[in-house]
Amino acid sequence: MKQSKLAAVACITALLVGCSAGNSLPIAGTNQTAPDVNQTAPGANQRPVRHRHKGTLTIRIRIPRHRHHRRRARYVSPSTLGATLAFTGAQSLTVSIGLTPGANPNGCSTHLGTTTCTITVKLLVGSYTGTISTYDEAPVGGSIPVAAKLLSTAADLPITIQLGVANSANFTLDGVVASLAVSGLPSGTLGTAFGSPQTFTVVARDADANIITGTYDNSVTLSDGDGSGHTAVATSGTDGPPAGKLLSSSDSATLSYDGNTSLLSAAIGAAASGATGGNATFMPAPVLTSITVNSGTIGGTASETATGVFAAGATTLAGTGLVAVPGTVTATSSQITATVLIDPHTATNGTTSLTAVTSAGGTSSGKTFTVSGTGVDIVTIGTDTKASDSNGVVGNGSGSAGDLRYTMRNAAAGDTIVFDTVDMCGAADGTGACTITLAGPLPPIVQNQTIDGSYFLGGSPRVTIDGNSAYRAFWTDSGTVTLQNLQIQNVKAQGGAGAYGLSGGGGGAGLGGGLFVNTAAVNVTNAYFLTCAAVGGGGGGTPAAGVGSGGGGGGLGGPGSGDLGLSNLQSIPGGGGGGVLGAGSAPSIGQGGNGGVGGGGGGGQINYSSGPIFAGGTGGAAYAGNTAGSAYSTINGGAGGFGGGGGGGGYGDSFPAGAGGIGGFGAGGGGGGYPFGTTGGAGANGGAGGGGGGAASVAGSGGALATISGGNGSASSGYGFGGGGAAAGPAIFVNTGTLTTTNSGSSSCTTATAGAAGGSGATGGGTDTTPVYNNGGTVNGSGTTGGISGALGSSTPSLRVRHPLSVRHRRKVVR
């Protein structure tokens, strides 16, 4: 403890008074009898020892009501409950005193919440050195408990005791600092020096968290963490504190700053021996003068240039709902350029504020930025759920509210679909990457629509669509469609297999693993296709046991069906053709197979001379507004709609057998029916790229694309085999629509595998391994058909920004 100062003012009584900042705290205590140093000598026949001359010292301690009282130079904590007085000199004496009213009302009394205790001590005449310490607990058994907290003290006080006078000494208790807090640091701006040192606050508290007013027993030392010299801390006061120190609550602390723009922060600390230190950080704010872009659409980005005063290399742009894309920020002392994401997780319709922020946290005043959520649908779930419908057709499901499948099915014409990667996969501040792994092909797009992953930066996409190595990602059927800022990977266009029958159906074509463009106008911007495949469906063969009808042709996605495994050949109609989605259904006794979802034709009926003529199958429903499959026509299989395989021909007993149905675009033809004593049914031709159906008489031919064809079926005595489907456009296939690619590339997207022939005499499909294939549309303004080698580059995209949409009036999360 430091030396206390002897007061220059004489008092009638030795007076310990003080006040503290704090709430009213009633104090209990006991009156203390003045210790008497005259004692009886030991022994049975003792005589009193002659009295030595003694004087009386009276001490009054006033314990304040409030913790936040007016400031005075003397301190007594409102938590005071006990004290220890120690004297050395003409005699030695230590006494512990309770400062609580009630035990002896004449010693301590309370008025208006303030407790005043008067203590008298008898001491031999002479000179003394005294120490007084106060605690937050009263004595127990004559001693202050060990766990009591020291609140204030006055040490090495000179005291003189005389006879016949009111012995007086005026001294001050020093508060014992237990904790410190620094606050009120001045605000500053980069590039602007303080005109004069600015005051800040240091608050010292005792062990019971009362603010100490007056002198400190353990002085406070200030520190400045800025090693550059651009800031400085100083102290001053009437008690002349040493440089960087505070001796009392009346001393002042100031901070200077020279305005240097390289200073990001300075940690200002306060410490005292045995105390918990405090600190605060001075962070000069950058100055934001202007911005070049003041509006944007949720999920979009803005190429922003800001001017002002900044910390070079250590300032970025930010705001509520606005996030600077990592790696795009360049900051000089006067300009910041950055790509700013209008984050789907936090941005809302209306105005927000764009600010400049240093890496230490210094923040400028803001500039108004207007956010539009008009026509924006937000994906919030990163999984692909309910991909199958109630019939188990993969890719025909409704999806779940918030996932991509559901959002695509429910978006309005002209909407933009964006991604909340925080909700989707917990990506930090919306800039992290999320991958959606598909459980089936995504729904076809049949209207104007944009799907935007926000940005693709330095080889790292924010949003990836993964086909699970099994499914096509996107089918754009009609409208003006934009796919941008996406990585599309592990995608596969798998043509459906032709079915077994007495004559097998032709296989479907594998076209466009990442994207199938039918008649739409599609813009692919800032996208990357990685690991893509197109695989044709195999042609159908003939089972070991003889059966009567033809197998259905494979569709663009689903396989055809046949009568394999059914033994009553006189009762078996033809199999249904496969669809764009889903297989054709198998025939049964008395009923031909139906077409698959997306245009498969129905199976032909049987023509039986001695029994009923059993019904054939129905055609499959239209896919994405294209042509539907046809139902059977008497004994013939129905024709496939767009993307659907033809139905198998029916069995003929004493009548001609049925012909297979013609395959729709990209699908295989149906196999011909079996003849019993008369003409066999012909195999049907495949649609463009689809394999021809096999037959007992005339086999079907493969359908032609611009430069390749599906395989031909074969014919032999009583049965035949289906041809394989073609494969083209592992990344993108364009039918008759328009494709424009910008700043987009591909890698490992040259896998095109033809469908194999179903058996002897049939042929497999043709292939083109170029990532992009144009059948009859335009690619980047050219009508050249076949593989388009320059449509996709080999590198990942660099960052590109889409233009904000026009402001309307809504932000929509599709539910």
Description:
The protein has 815 residues and is an all-beta fold. 1% of the residues lie in helices and 32% in strands. The protein is built from two helices and 54 strands. Strands 20, 21, 22, 23, 24, 25, 26, 27 and 28 form a nine-stranded mixed β-sheet that branches. Strands 29-30-32-37-41-48-53 form a seven-stranded parallel β-sheet, covered by helices on one side. Strands 31, 35, 38, 42, 49 and 50 form a six-stranded parallel β-sheet that branches. A hairpin with an 8-residue loop joins strand 27 (350-358) and strand 28 (367-372). 59% of the residues are buried.
Residue runs with pLDDT of under 50 for 5 or more positions: 1-51, 67-73, 800-815
| Mean pLDDT over the residues | 86
Strand-residue fraction? 25-35%
Helix tally?
2
**In angstroms, what separates the terminal alpha carbons?**
70 Å
Shape descriptor reads: elongated
Rg (CA only): 46 Å
Q: What profile does the largest beta sheet have?
A: 9 strands, mixed
Helical amount: under 10%
Total strand segments? 54
Structural class from helices and strands? mainly beta
Features:
815 residues; mainly beta; nine-stranded mixed β-sheet; seven-stranded parallel β-sheet; 2 helices; 54 strands; 32% strand; elongated; disordered N terminus; disordered C terminus
